């Protein structure tokens, strides 16, 4: 009794390019190419995917403490990721996409086992993803992805441990500094036709090096797999998550200097000292796979409902009634003589029946009444009542034609239609000029429809058994979020057009991926920071040019060495930025300026070792080059160099120990520096050295 798709995928996930299988104590086992399904909705070795794609496999993930997906993705060129508190608050940018988001993930599609985590209006939360239950992560960069609904930055797919894999059954306990604790249990059974797996995780960090920086989450899931026959399988999952996260404020220059001197942040320059996100999420999904000859049908159904309390700058957000997301994806795969045809339909709807905003109740004010600081995150007077919905419908198709043995030609199209409705009754609002709450603007209605075609033509050609060249031309549109449209109803949907060429090498002793790309973006949505408030506007055009390289080589005796490099040259071709001085707003020409925050150079290296006696170690060092702080390019931050992470582990039988030391040399630097149009510079501190020891017991 077997299922080809599931078992093949599982086998591919076990054969990983990172050190994991060792022939003897003098040489490494041959490297195996990863298998990807994210870029094309078809299982392929990454060498045969005519697009930039990276896969972070099981062996690499096992050497991370995995409190946050940052730990898995920070060595991927072209991917910029960081976290304020080590929880689920990752800020993620792929080739400049996602730059506009001050919190959460925008412009990038995030999936888990083929099921979207991203809302129809393009916003992604990570609070209900159990990072302890990840088998591998696939990152497909740039436009032209069949999974990426209204997302120009590409797609990230998180593959969880299969319900049919009892090799993942284990108990794990981790303890570290900063009040770090991790408890994880997974146990499953596989019968002749049915499989069950229960997963429970609790993570917490006190982060006592900085005030208002605690994080905890508790997640429980039940998975079920049903082998209907030799070809068909039904998998379902029900999960619940509670997550609590305090979001610390930034610092001014004096406070940042104190942090660099002491390693502790004792204060914040922000008046809003009690920001956070506290959520509860139920999530259900069911995936059926039916195979009949050369045709495979893959219907998916998913539903999640969530509540949150989310204090932010000036206001406290709360869902008076739970928000619901429901959707389906009906995919068909036909393997024919000339290649493979993939097509399908996606429908997703989010409903927000009653969302409310409140003033902060406890504040400290000046003699003029300006709010100087919050004293708690307690709710005050009701400020706004919102309700709304967003509906995404999409058709997609791709022909993967194989005209000859060494050629693959992908011709595809995805067409997304997104309809957004919202009614907001603003009773009170926070005025950034006066620093006070004032009478709101009353009832405002939003009713917008965006139609976003995303065509792609991609070609790969195997030059030799080890080398494959590829080229791709693709376009994708980006869905503006509901909040962005509310702040600026005239926003247009950005359109990205990308041309990319690359070379991939695969050998038993080495691997590399190299690419250059040229992306033109029309109506890019940019973030404008004006006196403490965040606004959004369309830049006329932006021009993104870049090059990326990642490589690794086996050195023998259990050693592997590798590194990555990304060069990013992103400029505004035309952009007139609104700048507010006092009560007056003027437009400033930013044409020719670099986009802020994105460093021109990002690079890193690693060396790993594994012994047949059970010992292993991995040392990695990462760097971000300098970048501009604002659209005006008035000032630069120097970035940071060679921040090192070390892991040392030992495994014997059913027992394993792993010691993780992140930021090994205790570098004190800023994870982000930004400057608003009034000239105020804010520093967000990166975490100092973090130490964690984890014990894992594998059940037989």
UniProtKB/TrEMBL annotation:
What keywords does the record list, in alphabetical order? Cell outer membrane, Ion transport, Iron, Iron transport, Membrane, Receptor, Signal, TonB box, Transmembrane, Transmembrane beta strand, Transport
Which protein family is named in the record?
Belongs to the TonB-dependent receptor family.
What CDD domains does this protein's entry cite? ligand_gated_channel
Membrane protein topology class:
Multi-pass membrane protein
Which InterPro entries does this entry report, sorted A to Z? Beta-barrel_TonB, Beta-barrel_TonB_sf, Plug_dom, Plug_dom_sf, TonB-dep_rcpt-like
Q: Could you tell me which Pfam families the record lists for this protein?
A: Plug (PF07715), TonB_dep_Rec_b-barrel (PF00593)
This one is known as: TonB-dependent receptor
A GO CC term? cell outer membrane
Q: Name one GO molecular function term.
A: siderophore uptake transmembrane transporter activity
- Membrane-spanning segments: none
Where the record annotates domain TonB-dependent receptor plug, the positions are 47-155
The UniProt entry lists the main location of this chain as: membrane
Q: Where is the TonB-dependent receptor-like beta-barrel domain?
A: 238-664
The source's superkingdom equals: Bacteria
Q: Where is the signal peptide?
A: 1-23
Compartment(s) of residence: Cell outer membrane
């Amino acid at each position: 009794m077997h299922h080809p798709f599931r078992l093949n995928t599982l086998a591919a996930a076990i054969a990983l390019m990172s050190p994991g299988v060792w022939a003897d104590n003098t040489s490494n086992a041959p490297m195996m190419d990863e298998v990807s399904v994210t870029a094309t909705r078809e299982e392929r070795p990454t060498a045969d995917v005519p697009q930039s794609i990276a896969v972070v496999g099981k062996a690499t993930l096992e050497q991370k403490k995995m409190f946050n997906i940052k730990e898995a993705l920070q060595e991927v060129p072209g991917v910029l990721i960081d976290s304020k508190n080590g929880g689920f608050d990752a800020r993620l940018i792929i080739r400049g996409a996602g730059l506009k988001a001050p919190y959460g993930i925008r412009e990038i599609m995030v999936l888990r086992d083929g099921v979207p985590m991203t809302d129809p209006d393009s916003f992604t939360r990570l609070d209900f993803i159990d990072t302890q239950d990840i088998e591998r992560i696939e990152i497909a960069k740039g436009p032209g992805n069949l999974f990426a609904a209204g997302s120009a930055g590409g797609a990230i797919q998180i593959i969880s441990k299969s319900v049919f894999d009892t090799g993942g059954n284990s108990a794990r306990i981790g303890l570290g500094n900063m009040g770090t604790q991790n408890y994880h249990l997974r146990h499953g059974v596989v019968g002749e036709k049915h499989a069950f797996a229960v997963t429970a995780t609790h993570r917490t960090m006190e982060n006592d090096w900085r005030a208002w920086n605690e994080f905890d989450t508790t997640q429980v899931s039940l998975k079920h797999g049903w082998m209907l026959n030799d070809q068909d399988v039904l998998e379902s999952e029900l999960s619940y998550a509670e997550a609590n996260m305090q979001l610390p404020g930034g610092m001014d220059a004096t406070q940042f200097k104190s942090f660099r001197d002491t390693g502790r942040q004792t204060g914040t320059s922000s008046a809003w000292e009690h920001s956070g996100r506290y959520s509860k999420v139920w999530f259900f999904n069911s995936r059926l796979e039916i195979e009949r000859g050369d045709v495979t049908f893959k219907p998916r159904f998913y539903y999640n409902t969530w509540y949150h309390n989310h204090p932010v700058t000036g206001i406290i957000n709360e869902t008076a009634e739970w928000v619901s997301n429901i959707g389906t994806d009906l995919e068909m795969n036909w393997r024919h003589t000339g290649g493979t045809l993939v097509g399908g339909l996606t429908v997703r709807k989010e409903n927000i029946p009653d969302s409310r905003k409140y003033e902060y109740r406890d504040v400290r004010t000046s003699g003029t009444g300006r709010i100087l600081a919050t004293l708690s995150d307690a709710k005050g007077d009701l400020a706004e009542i919102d309700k709304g919905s967003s509906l995404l419908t999409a058709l997609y198709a791709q022909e993967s034609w194989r005209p000859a043995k060494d050629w693959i030609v992908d011709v595809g199209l995805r067409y997304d239609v997104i309809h957004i409705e919202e009614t907001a009754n603003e009773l009170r609002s926070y005025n950034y000029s006066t620093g006070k709450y004032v009478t709101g603007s009353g009832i405002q209605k939003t009713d917008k429809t965006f139609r976003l075609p995303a065509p792609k033509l991609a070609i790969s050609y195997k030059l030799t058994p080890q080398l494959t060249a590829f080229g791709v031309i693709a376009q994708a549109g980006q869905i503006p979020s509901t909040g962005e449209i509310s702040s600026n109803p005239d926003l247009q949907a950005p359109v990205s057009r990308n041309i990319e060429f690359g070379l991939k090498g695969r050998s038993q002793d080495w691997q590399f991926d190299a690419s250059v790309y040229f992306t033109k973006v029309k109506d890019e949505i940019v973030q404008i920071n004006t006196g403490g408030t965040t606004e959004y506007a369309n830049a006329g055009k932006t021009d993104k040019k870049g090059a990326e390289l990642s490589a690794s080589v086996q050195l023998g005796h259990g050693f592997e060495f590798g590194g990555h490099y990304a060069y990013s040259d992103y400029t505004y071709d035309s952009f007139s930025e609104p700048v507010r001085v006092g009560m007056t707003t003027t437009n400033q020409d930013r044409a020719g300026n670099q986009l802020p925050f994105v460093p021109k150079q990002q690079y890193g290296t690693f060396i790993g070792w594994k012994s047949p006696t059970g010992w292993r170690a991995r040392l990695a060092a990462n760097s971000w080059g300098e970048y501009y702080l604002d659209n005006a390019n008035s000032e630069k931050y120097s970035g940071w160099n060679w921040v090192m992470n070390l892991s040392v582990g030992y495994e014997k039988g059913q027992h394993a120990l792993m010691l993780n030391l992140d930021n090994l040399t205790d570098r004190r630097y800023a994870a982000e520096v930004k400057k608003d149009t009034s000239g105020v510079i804010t520093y967000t501190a990166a975490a100092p050295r973090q130490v964690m020891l984890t014990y894992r017991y594998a059940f037989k």
